[in-house]
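Lecture notes, part 5. Sequence design as translation. It can be helpful to think of inverse folding as translation between two languages: the language of shapes and the language of residues. The source text, in structure tokens, appears below.
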């Protein structure tokens, strides 16, 4: 099969000159304003690396612009000083993990596996994986740094560039088909479950190499604002808007394998909680074990974000805004009907199962089983849902409003191949990529 090639933009010519111009710090911000990662719950300055523009890490990568942040890392655009001028990988993105982040080594191992499983598979190029990694010493300990090709933006940001967040349907189809091709590679060749599919974990390539050059010029003209926190750590205000689109030729890639899981054998199952609340598969909530098909459910729910510009499940949070698995299951029943008997049989059997290791919930409670973690039980011994009064009056066929007749029917047929209670009855990513809905119609003569 032919490989889809993504173009990694070269460093703009004016930045390849010596001495290298580096964005200087912008105006300092008042100490009382919280910037980027400072708003994270439990923010602790000593865990973050104090990166700054112009700093050279590992004697090779010169930090230029802060692109983003998370609760356990910051992302910087950097220059690879060892790259030749003509080398397309002279610009990289650095993910600088906190000194207490446990995900970095796991993410590195998974991505090394994903990048080498079968380079000839078409879906390999739809995974954004490591270019390299290194350790850097900070004031409070060592930080793992992961090196990636730079990407334009997340799919959630990209979607906002269109009126009413509606990406043109042909482009949506192309992106869905690409993601399924990527999942086919991830599941079949790598035997890896991503477990965390969402718009923010899908990124788009640069549609034109001049986008990066113009972005860097603006950074020299208008440097990043920053502040110094009470511990003396500089905190820069991230810049992640690369400007207006210059075309629609971006390629989506799956990113962030920090929560991914390898299931090497056919009878390997995951049992611990995975997936963002809204996209969580029923087998995860019920604690009956999950495999690659959990990603298929996850992507099936994500289709509504792409096609409709809104979430499929509308009633999964309580009055305090907290995720409620009872409400989630109730809406699944409304949209898909009740779970089949074989799912109920496995649910009753697995209720007695305790996880090999306890898992701490978001509220701090340590749980040893899915039923405890998700506040069950949910069904009685006869398979009757215990909260029938919570089932809303909704049907899956009524959730699609922006497609016309034939397209609507084809889309729902695709979705129903992904959103089934029984994990084994979901279609594989490879099968779904060939679905008629995703095939672009040829213009009639």
């Amino acid at each position: 099969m032919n490989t889809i090639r993504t173009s990694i933009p070269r460093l703009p010519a004016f930045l390849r000159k010596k001495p290298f111009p580096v964005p200087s710090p912008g105006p300092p911000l008042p100490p009382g304003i919280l910037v980027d990662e400072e708003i994270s719950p439990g923010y602790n300055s000593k865990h973050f690396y104090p990166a700054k523009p112009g700093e050279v890490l590992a004697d090779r990568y010169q930090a230029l612009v802060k692109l983003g942040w998370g609760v356990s890392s910051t992302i910087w655009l950097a220059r690879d000083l060892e790259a030749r001028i003509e080398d397309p990988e002279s610009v990289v993105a650095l993910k600088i993990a906190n000194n207490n982040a446990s995900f970095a080594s796991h993410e590195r191992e998974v991505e090394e596996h994903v990048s080498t499983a079968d380079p000839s598979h078409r879906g390999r190029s739809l995974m954004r994986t490591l270019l390299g990694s290194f350790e850097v010493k900070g004031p409070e300990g060592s930080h793992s740094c992961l090196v990636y090709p730079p990407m334009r933006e997340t799919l959630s940001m990209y979607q906002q560039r269109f009126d009413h967040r509606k990406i043109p349907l042909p482009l949506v189809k192309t992106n869905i088909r690409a993601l399924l091709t990527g999942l086919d590679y991830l599941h079949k060749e790598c035997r890896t479950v991503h477990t965390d599919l969402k718009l923010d974990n899908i990124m788009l390539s640069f549609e034109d190499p001049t986008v990066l050059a113009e972005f860097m010029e603006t950074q020299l003209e208008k440097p990043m604002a920053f502040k110094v926190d009470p511990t003396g750590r500089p905190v820069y205000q991230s810049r992640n808007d690369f400007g207006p689109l210059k075309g629609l030729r971006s390629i989506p890639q799956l990113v962030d394998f920090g929560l991914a899981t390898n299931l090497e054998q056919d009878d390997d199952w995951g049992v611990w909680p995975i997936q963002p609340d809204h996209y969580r598969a029923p087998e995860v909530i019920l604690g009956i074990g999950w495999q690659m098909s959990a990603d298929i459910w996850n992507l099936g729910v994500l289709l509504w974000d792409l096609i409709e510009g809104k979430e499929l499940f509308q009633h999964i949070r309580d009055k305090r805004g907290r995720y409620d698995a009872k409400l989630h299951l109730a809406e699944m029943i409304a949209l898909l009907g009740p779970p089949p008997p074989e799912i109920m049989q496995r649910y009753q059997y697995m209720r007695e199962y305790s996880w090999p290791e306890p898992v701490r919930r978001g509220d701090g409670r340590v749980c040893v089983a899915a039923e405890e973690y998700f506040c069950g039980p949910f069904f009685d011994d006869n398979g009757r849902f215990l909260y029938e009064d919570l089932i809303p009056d909704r049907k899956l066929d009524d959730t699609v409003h922006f497609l016309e007749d034939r397209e609507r029917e084809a889309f729902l047929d695709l979705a129903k191949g992904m959103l089934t209670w029984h994990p084994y009855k979901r279609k594989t990513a490879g099968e779904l990529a060939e679905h008629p809905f995703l095939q672009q119609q040829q213009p009639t003569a």
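The translated text above is only one of many valid answers, since several sequences can fold into similar shapes. Confidence is low (pLDDT under 50) at residues 1-8.
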